[in-house]
Amino acid sequence: MSLDPAAMSPGDLVATMPFAVHTGVEITAASRDEVVGHLDWSEARTTLGGGFHGGALMTLADSLGAVAAFLHLPAGAGTATVSSSTVLLKAARQGRVTGRSRAISVGRRFITVQTDLSDEEGRAIATTTQVQAVLA
Prior knowledge:
With about 140 residues, this protein is of the alpha+beta class. The chain has helices spanning about 10-15, 20-25, 55-70, and strands at about 25-30, 35-40, 80-90, 95-105, 110-120, 125-135.
C-alpha cells in the first residue's frame, strides 16, 4: 500500500490504523478539506446505561483527526498526536455516530484539527480538538 495520500482510498487510510479497524471505525470520505467517518452502535462499545463509551467516541475522533493531519503533511513526513481534548456533549444510545474532521491550523511543526461528532439526527455528541506533530 502506498503512503502517498493522493493515492489512498478512505479504506486504505483507515487500514493504516489497526486499532481503528479493530474498534469499527470506518472512513467514508477523505480530502484535505474534510475527513468523514462513523462508528456504529454495538453493545461492545457501550458503558453502563447503553450509551457509547467515551473512549469509543474519542477513538473515532482521534482516527479521523489523524487522517486530516496526514492529508496536510509534507512529502515523507509522519504525524503523531501530542494533545487531544474532547468535550462530551450528549449521550448516543443507538445508531451511528458520524464524525467530520478538518484542519483548523496547518504549520511547519504542528497541525491542529477539530473533529465534530453527531448522531443520526444531526445533534452534537462531542467535539475534539487535537494537535498533531509533523514528524519530518
